[in-house]
């Protein structure tokens, strides 16, 4: 079983839709959960960072962690064409271990 | 604002050439990382470093080496470039959160 699983998509939604992106993971020791956004031909940029379980909101973005189910989600409200990108989840269990990345979900928001 | 810079955005090299990719960060991070990214394979860790002159192998170190002489600078070296090393190379630095550079798209002919 891979450490982090993420549906690659592609996911195509109309402008204004609520988008749900998800990852599952296998190691219950993971404590730090991140979402990155990557535009085409650019480096990933950190979007959301969560420690342990719970929700975190930043504008139109909400990150959710359910450690009991080993499931993390990123919700995008009122999606915009500028949200079209690949979204990668990333997880680790301490600062001195490398991040484990999902393979990314490609999202297209159609105007 | 964290800044990670990479020496080149695009690079074209010939098979057998020695290739240097440089990465510089300005946030005094101890941890630095090199990844390659390929369609369908995601990000794969090549090497990382937790301190000056320290290096650890990642998942795919074969054909690569690294150098960390100064805290802010982490170099990736392709000793003898091959066509299967054509890829997007990404440098990152940070502790629990990692911050990425813009990437170097390397083509080996």
Mean pLDDT of chain B: 95
Secondary-structure-based class of chain B equals mainly beta
SSE ordering of chain A: EEEEEEEEEEE
Largest beta-sheet characterization of chain A: 6 strands, mixed
Low-pLDDT ranges of chain A: none
Succession of helices and strands of chain B: EEEEEEEEEEE
Structure description:
- The complex is a heterodimer of chains A (111) and B (109).
- Chain A has 111 residues and is mostly beta strands.
- Chain A is built from no helices and eleven strands.
- In chain A, strands 2, 4, 5, 9, 10 and 11 form a six-stranded mixed beta sheet that branches.
- The termini of chain A are far apart.
- The relative contact order of chain A is 0.34.
- Chain B is an all-beta fold and 109 residues long.
- Chain B has strands spanning 4-6, 10-13, 19-25, 32-38, 42-49, 56-57, 64-70, 73-78, 87-94, 98-100, 104-108.
- In chain B, the strands form two sheets. In chain B, strands 2, 4, 5, 6, 9, 10 and 11 form a seven-stranded mixed beta sheet that branches. Chain B has a four-stranded antiparallel beta sheet with strand order 1-3-8-7, with no helix packed on it.
- The mean pLDDT of chain B is 95.
- Chains A and B meet through β4, β5 and β9 of A and β5 and β10 of B.
């Amino acid at each position: 079983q891979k450490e982090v699983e993420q549906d690659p998509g592609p996911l195509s939604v109309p402008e204004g839709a609520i988008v749900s992106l998800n990852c599952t993971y296998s190691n219950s020791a993971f404590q730090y959960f991140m979402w990155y956004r990557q535009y085409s031909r650019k480096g990933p940029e950190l979007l959301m960072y969560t420690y342990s379980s719970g929700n975190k909101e930043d504008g139109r973005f909400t990150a959710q962690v359910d450690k009991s189910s080993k499931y993390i989600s990123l919700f995008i409200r009122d999606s915009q064409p500028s949200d079209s990108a690949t979204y990668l989840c990333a997880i680790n269990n301490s600062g001195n271990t490398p991040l484990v990345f999902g393979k990314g979900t490609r999202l297209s928001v159609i105007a | 604002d964290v800044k990670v810079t990479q020496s080149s955005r695009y690079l074209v090299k010939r098979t057998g050439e020695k290739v240097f990719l440089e990465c510089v960060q300005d946030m005094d991070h101890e941890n630095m990382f090199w990844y390659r990214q390929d369609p369908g394979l995601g990000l794969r860790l090549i090497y990382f470093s937790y301190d000056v002159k320290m290096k650890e192998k990642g998942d795919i170190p074969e054909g690569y080496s690294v150098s960390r002489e100064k805290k802010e600078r982490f170099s990736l070296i392709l000793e003898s470039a091959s066509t299967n090393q054509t890829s997007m190379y990404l440098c990152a630095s940070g502790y629990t959160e990692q911050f990425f550079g813009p990437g170097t798209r390397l083509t080996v002919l």
